[in-house]
Structure to design on (534 residues):
């Protein structure tokens, strides 16, 4: 949440061996829990500590402690595609923007690899189960509104996209505060295991003498941060009394993992209590100004809602029969690196991002400029992908900020994973665990059109981007040029046609009628309504 946290006083002696009293509150990082979970069954370990400890031993031969996709595929006995997906996903949710994996060009990812400690934490949280939706009291409100085209609909897509809007179902989804409390509880339960994977044994001592170095402690930043959003940039070790006053020119003295464990448990308990108090205040009619829960209205052109969570996740929901555009100023403190699109039906999505994950969507077209393979998960039907098809004046600047390379666009390489999401806490029928979701087809080049973003904001300075930065594939470019040529020839024929004035008016009227019919049949009429509304 975004409330500022005032430190409490501490009476502990910093030189004492006792566990210091916590002085700040702790928040889970939402990114790995929201964008870092992959529906790959081989990543769900029966005994994650034992499996990952063995993995650490197998992969720690490298002095740099970094792991490439080939070594990872061999160690986990998974495909090279899945190993590369793990590295790509990890790079999108890492806490450190300076990590070489984050800044690596796509062709260098395999050689640079992931830090082993971040990789182990990433693999450990694949056991995380998302919070279940609240019970829906009105079963009639969620009666099915479209044909059930999948044998798995009753289990996997509890609600169709239209149901989600018509039943105002956002109210029944977990709130951000609920999710934070759930993630804190998960960290509380698994903290000992997580610390054991980051700790090192003292030579000649037993398991109770595991120690944690300052560098190992800072890798907890993958999962947690202290205080409010503004303190995320502070190294994690500076928030801990164990390392806060360490001489930067001298290696910090390691501490007992058990001491760190006890200290963090106290902070997590205090943080859970804080979240509970805020929830209680909200339920009693005193909503926090930072609460970002969204109550969806009925489907209508004006029903689109957007909100931003404390951790810079930005939500756009309820877009129906309209177009929705956000400016850079609307996405404060955010960088669009990993986009998740879920529960959409008959929607056109245009996005430039490092990666995109498409979940439970039907009859949608995605115009993509992405450096990583589009990930398709869940119950999807009749999806199409196409090259990126627009630009605006600051696009190049924004792409540079988040490290998107316009020379690499993997829009046409969708990676379809399982229909079942092992992280959804739901029970599923036997025999469908390994079922693969329906992939996406490439849009027919003759159906490809450019999308023009109007200059709605007068006075905006003209920046460098004057064209689509992503080169069009030959088939799409050729089709576009052919259509442009055909249009020019038709316009010339009409101009030179030897028609009387009344016949020209009849022809113009007929063209207008056919064009209007096309606007309605294609759904493009809504774009005109949006422009008129603006």
């Amino acid at each position: 949440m975004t409330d500022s946290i005032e430190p409490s006083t501490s009476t502990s002696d910093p030189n004492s061996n006792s566990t210091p009293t916590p002085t700040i509150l702790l928040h889970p990082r939402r990114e790995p829990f929201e964008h870092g979970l992959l529906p790959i069954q081989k990543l769900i370990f029966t005994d994650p500590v034992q499996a990952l400890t063995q993995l650490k031993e197998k992969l720690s031969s490298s002095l740099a402690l970094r792991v490439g996709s080939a070594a990872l595929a061999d160690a986990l006995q998974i495909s090279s595609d899945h190993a590369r997906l793990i590295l790509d996903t990890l790079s999108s949710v890492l806490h450190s923007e300076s990590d070489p994996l984050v800044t690596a060009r796509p062709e260098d990812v395999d050689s640079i690899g992931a830090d082993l400690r971040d990789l182990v934490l990433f693999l450990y949280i694949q056991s995380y189960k998302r919070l279940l939706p609240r019970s829906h009291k009105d079963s009639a409100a969620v009666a099915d509104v479209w044909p059930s085209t999948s044998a798995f609909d009753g289990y996997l897509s509890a609600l169709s996209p239209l149901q989600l809007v018509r039943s105002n179902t956002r109210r029944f989804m977990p709130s951000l505060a609920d999710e934070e409390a759930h993630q804190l509880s998960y960290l509380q339960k698994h903290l000992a295991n997580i610390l054991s994977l980051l700790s090192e044994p003292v030579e000649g001592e037993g398991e109770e003498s595991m120690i944690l170095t300052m560098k190992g402690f800072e890798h907890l930043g993958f999962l947690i941060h202290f205080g409010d959003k503004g303190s995320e940039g502070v190294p994690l070790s500076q928030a801990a009394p164990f390392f806060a006053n360490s001489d930067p020119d001298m290696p910090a003295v390691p501490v007992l993992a058990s001491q760190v464990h006890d200290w963090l448990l106290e902070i997590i308990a205090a943080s859970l209590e804080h979240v509970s108090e805020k929830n209680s205040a909200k339920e009693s009619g005193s909503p926090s100004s930072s609460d970002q829960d969204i109550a969806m209205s009925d489907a209508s052109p004006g029903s689109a809602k957007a909100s931003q969570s404390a951790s810079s996740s930005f939500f756009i929901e309820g877009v129906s029969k309209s177009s929705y555009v956000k400016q850079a100023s609307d996405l404060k403190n955010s960088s669009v690196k990993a986009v998740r699109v879920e529960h959409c039906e008959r929607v056109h999505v245009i996005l430039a991002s490092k990666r995109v994950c498409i979940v439970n969507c039907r009859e949608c077209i995605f115009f993509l400029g992405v450096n990583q393979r589009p990930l398709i998960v869940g119950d999807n039907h009749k999806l199409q992908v196409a090259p990126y098809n627009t630009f605006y004046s600051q696009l190049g600047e924004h792409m540079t900020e988040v490290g998107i390379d316009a020379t690499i666009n993997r829009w046409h390489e969708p990676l379809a994973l399982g229909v079942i999401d092992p992280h959804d806490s739901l029970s599923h029928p036997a025999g469908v665990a390994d079922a693969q979701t329906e992939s996406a087809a490439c849009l027919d080049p003759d159906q490809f059109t450019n999308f023009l973003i109007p200059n709605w904001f007068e006075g905006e300075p003209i920046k460098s981007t004057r064209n689509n930065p992503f080169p069009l594939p030959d088939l799409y470019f050729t089709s576009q040029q052919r259509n442009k040529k055909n249009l020019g020839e038709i316009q010339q024929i009409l101009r030179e046609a030897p028609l009387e004035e009344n016949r020209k008016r009849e022809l113009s009227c007929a063209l207008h009628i056919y064009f209007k019919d096309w606007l309605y049949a294609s759904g493009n009429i809504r774009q005109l309504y949006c422009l008129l509304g603006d």
The chain has a mean pLDDT of 78. The longest helix spans residues 257-283. Residues 54 and 75 are 10 Å apart (CA to CA). The chain is about 35% helix and 10% strand.
